[in-house]
Amino acid sequence: MSFSAFARRVRDPALPYQRRVSALRSCVQLYRPVGFEATLSFLEELAGPFRRDEAALLRALEHLAASRRLRHEDLQRYAAERRTAKQLGRRIPGRADRNPNLGPPIWYGAAQRAALHALSYWRRSRLPELLAGNDPGAREIGSSVSACLASGGPLTAEQQRRLDDAVQQVRQRADGRLHDEDAPAYFRARDLLCVAALVRDAATPECAYAAPRAGGENGGPQGIAAENEGAKHA
Q1: For the chain, what percentages of helix, strand and coil (3-state, to nearest 5) are there?
Q2: How far is the C-alpha of 154 from the C-alpha of 133, rounded, in Å?
Q3: Fewer CB within 10 A of the end CB, N or C, for the chain?
Q4: How far is CA 230 from CA 13, 210, 211, 226, in A?
């Protein structure tokens, strides 16, 4: 079923309440900007206790739908930009050109706030497991999470540099044959890259998302974890 079909079920007062809550969860399965569980948690922060309050349930759906609409508008703008570029002979996007199709996904309309919330959720749930063991790259990403949450987002230039180095270490480890040789290690590395992407989003001032974001080989969120949209399941 489509997002719109599940949204109609959320709004349908004739349905049993728990079925309406389940329909909201199905909407989140289809659009989960910061991962499934973290998106549900952020909706509760935005809307209130939607699992037992109908007004909060409807607010949660509207918050989710509004972010999804903004994403679709951004994708439409990007498609128009690409059509114009092709007419001018630029058929292949540059590596530094923005591309909202590549991700990692953000919460349109509240990107920094949602990323901070998702980092808090990761720290409470799965981050300790990811940081277990003697892995300098993982430890540095964990330190970046702590620094980001402590500051409310911003990182110093040195903290950014150390995060870049840690991401490079983890990415190099995840490349190649790691998936075939050690699947748990591969998924752990992928989740660490997902967390690092959230740190980048949380460290980016909200006003920066008002303009199209540029990705970079190492410089922006797209450059840090474009391959990791599927990893954001927290």
Answers
A1: 70, 0, 30
A2: 27
A3: N
A4: 33, 25, 25, 10
Total residue length of the chain: 234
Cα-Cα-Cα-Cα dihedral sign, residues 112, 28, 105, 70:
negative
The first and second tokens of residue 125, run together, are 């749930």
Whole-structure pTM value: 0.82
What is the pLDDT averaged over residues 207-220?
47
Question: Closest by alpha carbon to 224, among 157, 171, 175?
Answer: 171
Average pLDDT over residues 28-32: 96
Compute the distance between CA of residue 30 and CA of residue 78 in angstroms, rounded to an integer. 21
Q: Give the residue from 209, 130, 122, 208 showing the smallest Cα distance to 174.
A: 130
